[in-house]
Design brief:
alpha+beta, zinc ion binding, two-stranded antiparallel sheet, hydrolase, 4 helices, 37% helix, endonuclease activity
């Protein structure tokens, strides 16, 4: 609920394009399975509508689409320490 409230209950992806769409869920930009330390990091969580959430994942191989990878790249500097 805190993330939805932070994002004013709007889809962050739609908002990038000037659309005001109600968010339906909170999405982990970096998945919990591969980045458990980021699971509850607020910077790793974004509010999305169902349609945009579907665009983040490749349902055939459980990987990320280009759109999902774009969000990962956008937040990498903030979330992933340099090696």
């Amino acid at each position: 609920m805190a993330i939805l409230k932070r994002d004013e209950y709007q889809c962050r992806e739609c908002r990038r394009y000037g659309k005001a769409t109600q968010a339906d869920m909170v999405h982990h930009v970096y998945p919990m399975e591969t980045h458990p330390k980021l699971a509850f990091n607020n910077d790793n969580l974004i509010s999305l509508c169902n349609r945009c959430h579907e665009k983040m994942h490749n349902r055939f191989d459980r990987g990320f689409t280009d759109k999902g990878k774009e969000w990962m790249d956008r937040l990498a500097d903030k979330l992933i320490p340099p090696t």
